[in-house]
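Anyone able to model this chain together with 3-hydroxy-3-methylglutaryl-coenzyme A?
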Amino acid sequence: MNNDVGIDHIAAYIPDHFLSLDSLAEARKIDVKKYHDGIGVKEMSIPTYSEDIVSMGANAGLRLLRESGVDPQDIGLLIVGSESSEDRAKPDATLIHSLLGIGESCRVFNIVHACAGANYGLVSAIDWLLADSTRKYAMVIASDIAIYGIGSAGEPTQGAGAVALLVSRSPRLLRIKEAANFSNNVYDFWRPLKEPFPIVKGVYSVQCYLKAALSCFKKITVNGGYDFVYHTPYPKLVEKVHFEVCSLLGMELDEKINHYKDRVQPANDFSSRIGNTYTASLWFSLLGCLESRLSGMHSNEKEANADRGLYLFSYGSGSGAILMEASPSKDWGTMADYFNYSEEAARRIPLSVEDYEKILSGAGAEIAEFNSGKFCYSGSENHQRKYEYIG
Ligand code: HMG
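re: yes, here you go
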């Protein structure tokens, strides 16, 4: 890869509570096989009152700074990608900037482009670094809460979480190259300001996603030896799209099934427990992929595959897509050793459907007060949102 720039480290924040899709299926009187096999989801992360996109983003950012050992004063650019903002003017990035103690000379802003916001942030951060050799680090945060509403078709595809990316020269984790772009003006999923939930044309959104993915992969010479990591609104869609990408490589059905199992499924398995996290979804899938690769390396089974490249496909409704190519740095396992997200997801607390419904209808303050993050949302005064460091 030409440019020695990319992702130095990744850290995530997963909300402390989840809803099992088994419980949801029972409550909605839907065959659970539809959720497990038809959509591919098992659990979804649900944020409680003290977790919003700012607290989740700041928690991921703090973890990123601590694990990477980078001084917040060396962050010269902070971009927050989100579509769940509480304010039309004041960027969430300003709140996260202050919570993380980043210096006043930092360039700080939000990007909105549905699920692709943070990925446009990442390629912008790479351009920013390449434009001036004195610049050291950029931080890109993806933080979102995906909610479609009680009883809606999208309900089983909800989720929440945040991921922070540290972008640098000579990155210790992954070198990143922008490989292809796609843009198309469509109304497949959109969120008018006065509507509480997104408006979605489900089947059409799936067609738009597929068109964007194929358009990007057709623009490059696809290397079938890579891992493929996709924006994951729900795992079954990724499986279907990957089969179409395999068709571009001339694979027969058996080969497609094996390729999917080997190169995509570990990422999908992890996402099936978190749910859609919009801007953060691609990055949770990447964490699933890298964690699984690392466990293989530790057991010496897959050592030969430790350094293989990856495709990162990001889709945002409306629509835009970026296909990126990533190559692991020599000692990427040193940074990836911090990843413990499968275990962290397993430690979450299950919610009853009744409590989940209360949280969605805004009455969640008294429910599930436990919060393992360092920052939490503590209420609003004069329309100003307040946050506390709870250590
Ligand atoms: P639905 O209408 O409830 O589901 O909505 P369905 O009836 O189409 O069933 C889903 C699948 O389950 C089908 O399989 C059924 O056959 C199967 P398919 O035909 O697709 O192969 N099924 C069963 N399988 C086993 N046992 C059973 C059973 N019953 C049915 N008993 C939909 C599904 C995905 C449309 C809905 O959940 C939705 O609207 N989700 C939100 C939109 C979405 O995720 N779109 C994805 C592309 S757009 C995107 O990625 C952008 C986004 O992330 C937002 C952004 O960019 O900001 C969403």
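The chain has a mean pLDDT of 95.
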